[in-house]
C-alpha cells in the first residue's frame, strides 16, 4: 500500500507562538519522539500537520480510544476468500514507509496497548509484529508524535513513567492576545475589531477556570464564533452558540459566563 494519500500537499496555516517549530525540527533531526501537551483547541493537530508538510513527510494520524488494541495499531490477518491476508495497521504503515505517526489523545488507550510503541521509541527503533513472526526495523524517516491533554485525565489515566520518559515535550498554551487575534482573523474571516472582542471574551472565560469551568474557551471556539459572525449571526447569539452553550450545562455557570462576556459585547 502506498502512503501517498497521507501526504500534505498544501501548506497548512500554522502561526507559531514560540520556538516550537525549531524545537520540533531539532527533535526530528534526531528522530526523537515528540509529545505535544496542551488544552483542547490550542493548535496541536494543526502544528503536526504543518510540521509534516514542512518536513515533507506523510502524516498518519490515529485517534486513540479505550478499546484500542495492539492489533489496531500494528495490524492483523484478515480472512479473504480462500486465504488470510495481512493488513498493516496505521503504526506499521508509518514505520514501513517513513511517515510521521501521530497518536492523538494517547492517554485514552490502555497501558498494555501503549507499550507497543516502546521498542519503537527507544534506540531500537523497531516494531515487533508477533502475529507475523517478524521484527520490522523503522524506516529512517519514521517518527512518532503523541498528544496529551494534561488537564483532564485522572491519575488512573496517566501514561506510564516508562512511556512518558521516551519523549521530548512541547507545551501548547493559548497564544498571547495579539497572536490569537491574528489566528482568529485568518481562520474565520472576521475583522480586527471582532477578533479583538472574541479574544477578550476568551480571556474572561479563561479567568473562570477552576471556578466551575475546567477550561476556558479555546482558540477553536473563537474561530467557530467568528465564522458565525461572518455568516451574519448576531454577536450575542454567535457567542452563546459557539462558546457558552458547548462549554457548560450548568445554569449558574452559564449565567456567570454570560455576565463575564456581556461587558465585551
Ligand atoms: N497556532 C495556530 N495557528 C493556526 N491555527 C490555530 C493555531 N492554534 C489554534 N488554531 C486554530 O484552532 C483550531 C483548533 O486547533 P487544533 O485542532 O490544532 O487543536 P488541538 O490542540 O489539536 O485540540 P484537541 O486537543 O481538541 O485535539 C484549528 O483548526 C485552527 O483553526
Ligand atoms: Mg487535535
Automatic annotation (TrEMBL):
Q: Which domain of life is it from?
A: Bacteria
Say yes or no: keyword ATP-binding present: yes
Which segments constitute the ATPase dynein-related AAA domain? 33-167
Q: Does the keyword Nucleotide-binding apply?
A: yes
One Pfam family per UniProt: CbbQ_C
Q: Which UniProt keywords apply?
A: ATP-binding, Nucleotide-binding
Q: Which GO terms describe its molecular function?
A: ATP binding; ATP hydrolysis activity
Q: What range(s) does the CbbQ/NirQ/NorQ C-terminal domain occupy? A: 180-263
Which family does the UniProt entry place this protein in?
Belongs to the CbbQ/NirQ/NorQ/GpvN family.
Q: What is this protein called?
A: ATPase
Lineage here is: Bacteria, Pseudomonadati, Pseudomonadota, Alphaproteobacteria, Acetobacterales
